[in-house]
Amino acid sequence: MLNIVLFGPPGAGKGTQSQNLIQQYNLVHLSTGDILRGEISNGTPLGLEAKKLMDQGLLVPDEVVIGMISNKLDSNKDAKGFIFDGFPRTVAQAEALDQVLASKNDAISAMIALEVNEVELEKRLLIRGKDSGRPDDQNPEIIRKRVQEYTSKTAPVANFYKAQSKFYSVAGIGTIDGIFTAIKAVVEKL
Ligand code: B4P
């Protein structure tokens, strides 16, 4: 199976490049951000709790997102592979993902990290915030909080995959097509 973790700070292009990858390689897209926003729009108890944290730029508790991903893996048994977009976002999530995949005789193939500087991230998210209505994209302070959460809790996940020799870095600034070409070059070598 081809299982790719698409990694990077908020606004790095994970969601954007996931769409390209699922089309090119016929993979299932698992975005914890999208799943959580689905829970919010359905008004579920989980969604109501998640919204309070997401609106402040904070991460949702590990056990909540691990449970969600586990359920999605179980309900996509025929998949050729998965794109994990926005997950794992903590080392505990990465460890749990390895365990869940190992129980299915499966594993992560690669982590592809999109490298984008903070000035560009803030610019992109504020532009998206104008159209998307996403409350976490509209306020520079909340965006900075999300980047802080990324730096303190999510960036260490890269070391987890480096230790397994599965880490690949791709420059995330440039055209969407150009960045996808660089991502494909990594995937083709796996
Ligand atoms: P996510 O939904 O994962 O959102 P994100 O990281 O902010 O952005 P995304 O990756 O989708 O955007 P993209 O860069 O593609 O998370 C939202 C929140 O959910 C988190 O803050 C957290 O609270 C919670 N959450 C989610 N997963 C969690 C987890 N595992 N554990 C705990 N909490 C979790 O795109 C951004 C913009 O840039 C777009 O408008 C796009 O068009 C533009 N763009 C993309 N590529 C570009 C390029 N090359 N040039 C110019 N613009 C570009």
Q: Summarize this, please?
A:
The chain has 190 residues and is an alpha/beta fold.
Describe the structure.
It catalyses: AMP + ATP = 2 ADP. Belongs to the adenylate kinase family. Its EC number is 2.7.4.3. It is a single chain. The protein has a single domain, classed as P-loop containing nucleotide triphosphate hydrolases (Rossmann fold, 3-Layer(aba) Sandwich). The chain has nine helices and five strands. The chain has helices at 14-25, 32-41, 45-54, 62-74, 91-102, 118-132, 140-154, 157-162, 176-188, and strands at 2-7, 28-31, 81-85, 110-115, 167-171. The protein is 56% helix and 14% strand. With 190 residues, the chain is of the alpha/beta class. The termini are close together. The chain has a five-stranded parallel sheet with strand order 2-3-1-4-5. Bound molecules: BIS(adenosine)-5'-tetraphosphate. BIS(adenosine)-5'-tetraphosphate binds at residues 10-16, 32-33, 36, 53-54, 57-60, 65, 86-87, 89, 93, 124, 128, 136, 146, 176, 179.
Topology overview:
Blueprint: E1 2-7, H1 14-25, E2 28-31, H2 32-41, H3 45-54, H4 62-74, E3 81-85, H5 91-102, E4 110-115, H6 118-132, H7 140-154, H8 157-162, E5 167-171, H9 176-188
Parallel strand pairs: 1-3, 1-4, 2-3, 4-5
